[in-house]
What we know:
Blueprint: E1 7-10, E2 15-27, E3 30-36, E4 52-55, E5 67-69, E6 72-74, E7 84-87, E8 89-93, E9 98-104, H1 110-117, E10 123-127, E11 131-134, E12 141-146, H2 151-160, E13 166-173, E14 187-194, H3 205-211, E15 220-227, H4 228-241, E16 249-255
Parallel strand pairs: 12-13, 12-15, 13-14, 15-16
Antiparallel strand pairs: 1-11, 2-3, 2-10, 3-9, 4-7, 4-10, 5-6, 8-9
Amino acid sequence: MTRHAHRMVRHTLARRTIEVLSAKRITPHMQRIVFGGDELRGFTSEASDDHVKLFFPNGQGELVLPTLGPNGPEFPAGALPSPMRDYTPRYFDASRLELTIDFVVHGDGPASTWAEQAAPGQRIALAGPRGSFLMAEDFDHVVLVGDETALPAIGRRLDELPEHAHAIALIEIPEKADRLPLGSRAEFDVTWLERDGVDAAQSDLLERALRELPELSGDTFYWIATESRRVRAIRKYLAEECGVPKEWIRATGYWQAGGTDDDED
């Protein structure tokens, strides 16, 4: 059997209308929203860093959704499109048809603004996930590196690790109050890194913490998600300075400095 063999599972793309069941601020910068609805029947999310695309009401309070044309998604001519952003499913309860998504709230952008005022009964639309990246589970260690936008995926990954695994999580957050309880069947260690006012795009807390990790024996898989420029620098450090094989790194830019909103929370 091939060691460290990842798998990609493709899903049939479906679009669903979902309804807010509850909304709760769980930290100063994180809003947890539970969605429900019969259209969640058949929804599947097999990997901790799956992405679903959420469609929010436009400036006129309407959901204007695209259809899939020959050149990709196409919105109705003359209509104001619904803003759309990618998010990680945090929990899905198939028996109750309830989907939980954690939103980073940062004061601007259509997704953050909507999440702050979300209330039961409001509706948005969801599409995806298109596929799930199933990480090989025979690594000796898993190192999870991310900022608050990656916290839902990191928390879910820890939840889903098998008992034999060992994980190290380096998590950068705005302030100490943004820490969340994390658990796992696996052995794991978490280092919280608080920016305390430093701009997220200019911080180097994750980079320094990664360099300061003690040498790990055996094979290690690295999962990284933060601002796009920082992700590229971390990937380069691991590949070029540490000699980590590219197949042992999964690095994704969850947002871009100077953008109008988070690409992925």
